[in-house]
Sequence to fold (228 residues):
Amino acid sequence: MQITDEMLYQHASQARDLWLDTLPQRDEIPDFPCSKQFQRKMDRLLRRQRRSPQVNRILHSMKRIVAGLLIAVTITFAGLMTVEAFREKVIEVVVHIYHELTRYDYSSDKDVAVLPEFHFDYLPEGMALVMDERASDHVRNLQFENTSGQYLDLMATATTNDGTDTQIINTEEAQMTTWTIRGAEMTVVSKDGTNIILWVDENNHYTIQSDLSLTELKLIVEGLSTHP
Fold:
């Protein structure tokens, strides 16, 4: 018997339903809880791939299927005034808001990457540095933990004119607020007990991720200073 296209079309839906019926139900799939340390490592790995073209291809595909409106907002940091000096605007940020994600694209006209040194006037009691890693000339990552397992992850990325840095944040049902500290406008994203703080200064952009309270994080950021 010859199998025709019409026969395939006719029975394709039945074959699909038969195959789907063999799969376990969602409530039959056991949960696999990951440790916080593992999840933080995965978060760092994803952030390091921000220059990957694969990420952009995935996001472009998502735009065809997610429900929502794409909003492009250009945030111009026209001049950040600190107590020490007037800081020239060197980074431009374009924010793309999707249904479940927010993508931040950072670009700069600088041709030299200069990662900062950090000084903390305040850290919660028991919070100690457990990692200080330079993934490249463009990325520096500091991680702090206390004996209770609470953590603070600080990443600095130097943006230059050799490309656009991309950062993706899961903002579905997240609470978003804005802080202004030392003249810098900071975006604060809170979801499921995790707080993320984003801001730019000169040709660097910064990300803090932590399960500390916003009260503690604000004290940390207010006492944080950077210099080349």
Summary: The first helix runs from residue 5 to 21. The chain has one domain: 36-227.
